[in-house]
Design a protein that fits this description.
mainly alpha, Rossmann fold
Amino acid sequence: AVILNNIGVIQIKLNQFEDSIESFNKAIKSKPDYAEPYFNLGNALRKLGRAKESVDSYETACQINPLFAKAFLYKSLSLKNLGKFEDSIISSKEAIKLKPDYGIAHRHLSSMLTYIKKDDSHLEKMESVYKQELINSEDRIQLAFGLGKAYEDLAEYEKAFNYFEQGNRIYRDTIKYSTEGRERFFSLLKENFDKDFFASYKSLSTQGEKMIFVLGMPRSGTSLVEQILSSHSKVYGAGELRYLKEAVDSSLTGIQGYSFPKNIKLHDPKSFDLLGLNYLKLIEKLGKDKGRLVVDKMPYNFMHIGVISCSLPNAKIILCEREPLDNCFSIYKQKFGIGNDF
């Protein structure tokens, strides 16, 4: 069961979610009282947008191991995604009860609370933990953002900004981000996806008619636009999918030592058709696209508008823009997950 569980974890890291589900189910069948595969099954289901099923899996993990703080937290995350905020708050508090210095659980809880008094019990608890010298940097970062949010609710803006500044400063030391590197990448996109490229590119493909890409900077309104679109019965909001980046990496492989985007003019035009096909196969695996339009709201797809134009020419693209200063400050106040280096 342990080996099967570990195989499933590796499959999740490789974005092989369906295969991972099979591995976790085999592990569960082999050892029904083993909490880990239930927890990891919940993770795989959540990645596939099957939040309701993931809650059941996390709940089973919690029942098997009542001290499994991470399972209570992830159950809370899925419940929040389902709009069940009261239940999500209860589960988040259970995680904190089991692990008082659990920074991410505190920050997650703070996102669902509105602080109206300075002697709020959760605010006091966060401050008490933050003052401890022995908490690790990840917990301290998460707590800083939670405290910043709480003091912003209380209109103590100087104190709020101080916590946001501390959280961002500590987090900056944990990542390798280069503004110059980003500028070089965007310059390469412009140089290679130029007018001459699009003028010479010929494709008979009509793929993508069921896709709507909502993109732009994080915190620019992509979630709201997706919610509005998916309120229609014939539109499915798939969330932030990494599928397009995966399709780019697998279809536009390096040629003659050149990687994307330097290699696009070296590839046969059919490579873009194949890229679009590979992307749509991943969409089909969600099992939500039959008779419906699908919204992919991964903000960073703005980097791949040229790719979308060539590989999924009938797709719709909605670019969300927000006043730059507001957008940047909103990003500054937000602790993003893995893969967001700001």
